[in-house]
Amino acid sequence: MMAEKSSIKKYLRGMKFPFCAGCGLFGIVDSFLRAVQELGYKNFKKFVFCSGIGCSSWIPSPFFLADSIHTLHGRSIPVATGIKLRRPDLNVVVFGGDGDLMGIGLGHFMHAARRNLDILVVMSNNMIYGMTGGQVAPTTPFGAITTTTPYGNFEQPFDAASLAVAAGATFSARWTTAHLKELKKTIKIALGLNGFRFIEVVSHCPTGFGRKRGLKTPQEFVDWVRDNAISIGEARKIGKNKQKNKIVIGEFIRKPRLTLIENIYAITREAQKLGKEN
Q: How would CATH label the architecture of 20-277?
């Protein structure tokens, strides 16, 4: 058992992660590495990681023993696009947060899904700007207190997993840091598929958000996440009105279609064929 527990260290550089004590990102890292391990990858030679700015963007860079690019805030997906176009043989994985991907980077996110860019995007949703002072984010629950909404958030939050579906993602799922076994299984599934794949992980943030909600310990935050999570099937039964303040979890879509790379190559071949005929 001890050997099995320490085996994922081969994917890491041996540096200490910068996350706060009790941060949910530790569970996301563990789930991802164990998924890669169970899929039989001995190292990250077939992977490239991209990330923007934020707590979760520190996950791959520089801590994974892999090629990674730490980009500007919200610009991880454009960089991932260039990598995938140049090296379609690689697994290109983006790690980001809700502010990074649903805020400044939302346009890139939507168009990558529309184009069906063949990448996996893993988004940690801690429902706040955790690294810069606890400001309100695009995914902050309605009525929640933050440093910039001291009387409660007056905006409705994005439903990121559903947004990915509407934009054209071939795979979209949501889990939480209270559902790490399900998360690991979903990561394994997503890594075996093609197209724009999105996994949202609602993550507890005891330092930046937990204190504002009166959740004094990481375990209290995890319990709150678990208690407020409902399955997609249950959500459909109770209807939209009763889903308020609930976290809908599960697989939202798995629908393959031609990827951006496949379309580019197909059109290029057709253009070359027409050129020869003329």
A: 3-Layer(aba) Sandwich (3.40)
